[in-house]
Every structure is written in structure tokens, then in C-alpha cells.
Design goal:
homodimer; 238 residues; alpha/beta; Rossmann fold; 7 helices; 10% strand
Chain lengths: 238, 238
């Protein structure tokens, strides 16, 4: 999980097309030589984010971007993939019984990191980047340092290779993430292309947990969200 | 990785249709209340094993059997999925540079266990069974106790649940596995339906690493392989 400067090696960024992974991609551009990106089509309702990921990868001049089709591979009652279930509107996972959001898909991040590691090995890459945060994590257990450490160890053991999972946002609130984005060249522009709304709506619904978290982060940072600015300045209207 | 008796709970067995997973399925029938099985279509050359898995599951009266389509999800130069590459013939991984068989597919077992864990959670199951062995493991790093322990920890962390990965064959040679099979009701019959050959051939090619290992195990145990007996007694000829 160390994030030493590795300007002599390439990395693979898991790019969902959302705010966090977009910020991670630009963080990676600062720390690594060349960037590869990977996105996952797991049957998510908000498919608009796959298009966002493509545009953000192109805008960042990555070496290659791959969208992996894994529709139907994961089962869950999560409204993110079970489209008959409403996403629901609530402010934080603390309001929920059990403390885990109903949007949680069991094993999603394990699967993403596993397939990413497979592609990394094939490309000769040993550094993965994922935009999980243990602060505003919505009760997802697979966004915590203990999980990331376990996953890193498992990949090292299972591949007999030194794989590193970089998690630059692991200790950051959404506000911190916005402030980090401000320091990364091109990142705020890229965020105009990013997608966050769990309803897959544009303009964003403004009511789902993801929308509320994003809005709170920009508000606390005192920055206008480029996504909510002049519609003519972002990709969604083009 | 503990294998205490759990006759009051159900388990999910990863069933490839080969000798080891068939033996594990029958081991699980002894230790668990009800058995679910899962097989993976990852584009393997020896697709005959998927049919074998179905038949073996049916023969064992499992509660349900699912074949999961994940063709194209993993990339590798392994001849198991890259069909233009010959499997090659050699006696042991020790003969190979690096000590890892060219049939190794990076992250295959991680992926199998991850998708199996997703299905287990949906079914309310906390016990997974996989037929890996660290003895006759062909240099695969994802067949060793350290990997299994890491994977188990990762699943527990990532799901916030007590998941157990049972590996009854982890310390067994092929000979030991044959001797175990002899003690499990119905297992030797089931092995007549199993498939091992890396070439996907029937009758088995008898030359690939998998064929040689299987033959050695039965020979050392002093038992005739039910697969190599009277063709009219096994499924392949029906």
C-alpha cells in the first residue's frame, strides 16, 4: 500500500468514471511513468459511468483503456445491479441497520482487483491503483485498509509476485479528495466528465447517497463542482 | 481452513469435474448438511470437464449446480485458454524454468473463490470447499496454504463475514487423494465420470502433466483408475 514515487514504472488504474477514481488517475499520472486504465461493466444501472471512464481515460492520455464485460457474473440484491430495487435515499450508512449500504455488492472490489491483477501480470505491471476511501465509505467493508492489505497479500501469494495496491484516498474525506484534485494538473477538468449519481441520471438526481456525498465534499472544500457548472462546459451535454 | 464437522450447515464446492474436486465433493457430503456446486467456464480447452462436473454433481444429488460463464475474463499465455499454444509434455514443474507450469493462469483460483464467495453470500452459505493440493501442485502458487489463508482473510475482511475455505486435499499427494476417495461412499463411481487430461482428450492423452499425475496416484495407491477401466462403464462413451 506504499505510495513511493515510481516514475520509472507503469501502473494500472481501476477507473469507474466517478470522482474518486478520476482523482486517482491524475494522482497516478504524477507518480508513475505510464498509465493503463481498466473499467468494469458489471451490469450497473448507471451505465453512463462507463462512457465517462472512456472519456476521462482519453482526456488523460493513458496508454490503453479496457472495459471488461462481466455482466451477470456477480449476484446481489444491490439496486446497483438489481434494477427493480430502488436505490433509496438516505444520508449516511449509519442510518441503516447493520451499517452496510444496500448498494453493497458482495465481493465487487475483490473481483475488480483480481481481474485488474490478471491484466497487470499480462502487461508486466506490478502496481494497481484503486480509489477506495475508508472515511466516506458508506459502510462498505471492502473499502478499508485491512481489506486492502489482505487483498495485496493474497495477490502476492497467489501470483508469487510483488504486487502493490495503491490507495491514495484511503484516509481522505470527500473534502480532502476535492482539495487533492485541485493540486493535480488536469484533474478538475476531468471531473467535469465524471459521473457519480447512483440513479445514473444527468443532471445528477442530487438525492442519492453518492450525490449527497459528492456535493458535501465540494461544499466543504469551498469549490464549485465542475459537473454542476455551466452544462456547455462538460461532456454530458455534448 | 478448519474442517470440523458441520453437519448442520450447507457448503459450496468448487467443482471442476476433475479428480480432486470430485473427491472434495464427496468429502463435503460426509461433513456438511447440504451441498451446492459451482463450475467455471473460463474458456478452457478441455471443455469436456464442464459436462463431467454436471454429471458428477447430478450423481452426488447436490442441491444445485451452476456453471458460470466467464469466458474471456482472464487473459494468459496458458495453453489451457490460449488454444494456439501446445500444452507441452513434461513430468514435473521442477523441470521448468521458474518452477511454475506454463499452464498457470494468473489469478484463476482467486477469481474462482471470489465468485464462489459472492454466490455463497447470496445463498447464506459461509463454507467453501476447493480441491487444491500443495503437494502435487505443479508449481501453481495459488494452491498453497499461505495463499488459501490470505484469501480466507481477504474474504472475511471484504465481506465482514466469517467465511471458511476448506481444503481437504491441501497436504495430500495424488496417492493420498485416491486412498481418501476409496473411503468416501460413491466417490470411486463418480471418478469414472471425472476428467483430468489437459488436452481435453478421451481416452486421456496419457502424456500431459495432469494425465501423468493422475496415473501415478492410482498406481501408487494400487488401485485401477475407474476412468481407464471398461469404457462401457463410464459416462464418456455414453
Amino acid at each position: 500500500m506504499s505510495t513511493d514515487n515510481k516514475k520509472d514504472v507503469s501502473c494500472l488504474v481501476i477507473l469507474s468514471g466517478g470522482q474518486d477514481s478520476t482523482t486517482c488517475l491524475h494522482w497516478a499520472k504524477r507518480h508513475f511513468k505510464e498509465i493503463h486504465t481498466i473499467a468494469f461493466d458489471y451490469g450497473q444501472k448507471h451505465r453512463i459511468e462507463l462512457k465517462s471512464a472512456e472519456r476521462i481515460a482519453h482526456h488523460a492520455h493513458v496508454l490503453d483503456h479496457e472495459t471488461i464485460d462481466m455482466r451477470g457474473l456477480m449476484k446481489s440484491t444491490s439496486p446497483l445491479i438489481e434494477h427493480t430495487h430502488p436505490v433509496g435515499q438516505y444520508k449516511s450508512a449509519e442510518d441503516l441497520p447493520g451499517g452496510i449500504e444496500p448498494t453493497f455488492i458482495p465481493c465487487r472490489n475483490i473481483l475488480f482487483l483480481t481481474v485488474a491483477a490478471n491484466r497487470a501480470v499480462v502487461k508486466g505491471i506490478k502496481d494497481l491503483v484503486i480509489g477506495v476511501s475508508a472515511v466516506d465509505y458508506g459502510g462498505y467493508p471492502d473499502c478499508r485498509p485491512g481489506f486492502i492489505k489482505g487483498m495485496e497479500d493474497t495477490l502476492c501469494q497467489g501470483l508469487e509476485m510483488d504486487i502493490t495496491i495503491h490507495v491514495p484516498l484511503i484516509s481522505m474525506s470527500k473534502k480532502d479528495t476535492v482539495l487533492l484534485a485541485l493540486t493535480l494538473p488536469g484533474c478538475m477538468e476531468a471531473l467535469a466528465y465524471s459521473h457519480t449519481c447512483y440513479e445514473g441520471a444527468f443532471p445528477p438526481c442530487g438525492k442519492c447517497h453518492a450525490c449527497l456525498l459528492r456535493a458535501k465534499g465540494f461544499q466543504e472544500a469551498g469549490i464549485e463542482d465542475p459537473l454542476s457548472g455551466d452544462p456547455s462546459s462538460n461532456s454530458h451535454s455534448k
